[in-house]
Amino acid sequence: MTTCGTVTKSLLLLAVVVALTGQGSAADEKFYKCCTTVSREEITETIVDYMVQLRKKNCVNAIIFQTESGNLYCSKHDEPWVMTKVRQLR
Question: What is the pLDDT of residues 1-31, one digit of tens each?
Fold first, then answer.
């Protein structure tokens, strides 16, 4: 049986694969195929989910946040606000 969390994570992964652009103000760190750069700036939109991206080829270690409006942002994984938000979303 599939849990709601598994379905949500699967949908987020699908959104990440399909996403070509994002919109927002967090230093314009918009999400493309993978995060090649990250932002330290706190996201002002309501965050509803996240995904961890590990370094591979051109992709960097990042936390990818999904906002209520569907935007995806690449954030620096060791920023205090990022770690706090991840704990809140668990």
Answer: 545 554 445 444 444 444 433 444 455 555 4
Enumerate domains of the chain plus CATH numbers.
4-89 (2.40.50.40)
Q: What is the pTM of this model?
A: 0.64
CB 49 within 8 A of CB 59: no
Amino acid letter, residue 32: Y
The 10 Å Cβ neighbour count of residue 20 is 8
Q: Which long-range contacts (CB under 8 A, 24 or more apart) does 52-60 make?
A: 52/77, 58/34, 59/34, 59/35, 60/35, 60/36
